[in-house]
Design goal:
It is a single chain. This protein is an alpha+beta fold and 182 residues long. 19% of the residues lie in helices and 46% in strands. The protein is built from two helices and twelve strands. The strands form two sheets. It has a six-stranded antiparallel β-sheet with strand order 2-1-12-11-10-6, with no helix packed on it. Strands 3, 4, 5, 7, 8 and 9 form a six-stranded antiparallel β-sheet that branches. The chain is globular.
C-alpha cells in the first residue's frame, strides 16, 4: 500500500510539472510585436518614430524599422538596406494627444518595404499602400490615425486603413520619438 501511495504522489508531481511547463512554453511563443504595421496577413515591426512640423501648417509623421542609431549613421553616408518606411503628412500644425485624424486630413500617406537609404535618401522598395499612386489597388480609400499620447519623449498611436482592393491595414506604435535637431 505504501508503494501505491508513493507511485500516486510521483504521478501527481509529474502531472503538475508537465502542466506548468506547457503554460510557460505558451507564454514564450506569444512574443507579439506591438509596434507594427499589418497589411493583410503580413506584419512589419516598427522601431522608431519621427514627428516633424513643417512650414505649411502640416506635420510629417514617419515610422521605420530602423533604430535611432541606424538613422543617425545614415546621415553620415552609411547605407541601410531592408528599410520599411511609413509616412503621413497630416494637415495640422502639430500632433495632438487624444485626437483622430481622418483620411481627409491626411494629404499624403505611403508605406514602402525593403527599401534602401543611400546618401541619406530613401530609394527603391515596394509600395504596400498609399493615398494616391500609379496602382489603384494599393490606394487607401478609408481610414484614420488616432494619436493617444504625444509628448516630447513618447508617441502612442494606432491607425486603420482599407485599400481599394479590400486589404485591411492596421498599425500600432508606442515608443520613443527620434528628436530631429536643426
Amino acid at each position: 500500500m505504501k508503494k501505491v501511495k508513493i507511485l500516486y504522489l510521483i504521478l501527481l508531481v509529474v502531472f503538475f510539472t508537465a502542466c506548468s511547463s506547457d503554460d510557460d512554453n505558451n507564454s514564450i511563443e506569444d512574443n507579439t510585436v506591438t509596434n507594427k504595421i499589418t497589411v493583410g496577413d503580413s506584419d512589419f515591426e516598427m522601431k522608431t518614430a519621427i514627428v516633424e512640423p513643417t512650414l505649411n501648417n502640416s506635420v510629417f509623421l514617419s515610422l521605420t524599422n530602423s533604430t535611432q542609431a541606424q538613422i543617425e549613421a545614415s546621415y553620415n553616408c552609411t547605407t541601410l538596406n531592408n528599410v520599411d518606411y511609413f509616412t503621413a503628412r497630416i494637415n495640422h500644425s502639430d500632433l495632438t494627444s487624444n485626437e483622430t485624424y481622418d483620411l481627409s486630413e491626411i494629404s499624403s500617406l505611403e508605406f514602402i518595404i525593403n527599401g534602401d537609404i543611400i546618401n541619406s535618401e530613401f530609394e527603391n522598395g515596394f509600395s504596400q499602400f498609399y493615398k494616391s499612386g500609379s496602382n489603384p489597388d494599393l490606394e487607401v480609400t478609408e481610414g484614420s490615425i488616432t494619436v493617444t499620447n504625444y509628448s516630447i519623449d513618447n508617441l502612442t498611436l494606432t491607425f486603420n486603413f482599407v485599400r481599394s482592393d479590400g486589404t485591411e491595414i492596421t498599425g500600432n506604435y508606442n515608443g520613443i520619438l527620434f528628436p530631429l535637431d536643426d
